[in-house]
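User: Teach me something about this protein's shape.
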Amino acid sequence: MIPGSGQPNMQQLLQQAQKMQQDLANAQEELARTEVDGQAGGGLVRATVTGAGELRALKIDPKAVDPEAASVEETVETLADLVVAAVQAANENAQQLQQQKLGPLAQGLGGGGSGIPGLPF
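Assistant: First, the predicted structure itself:
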């Protein structure tokens, strides 16, 4: 506040905004480096994504492909379903991580649940 005017100190507001912007950029960089996993079929299929949602790895246990269990078409369909479920689980974990890392910053920027354009909350 500028003494006697009741107005906020613009320099101080700019410094706070710059700090929050830097904190947000740092959190986004950390999310891009952090990996989280998701799995399906009791761990037969595992997907790894970054906290930003980029798919980094997909592991399929050979037990997930059992040619004696069903026809090839059914095996492929089941495997595809497991891959989709594992990637979805990994992305849900990434979204939770985003909320943990970015949620407090959004509240500091006035987001408080109303959302900030470009952020997933």
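Now, about its shape. The longest helix spans residues 72-108. The first strand starts at residue 35 and ends at 40. If you'd like, I can walk through any region in more detail.
User: That's plenty for now, thanks!
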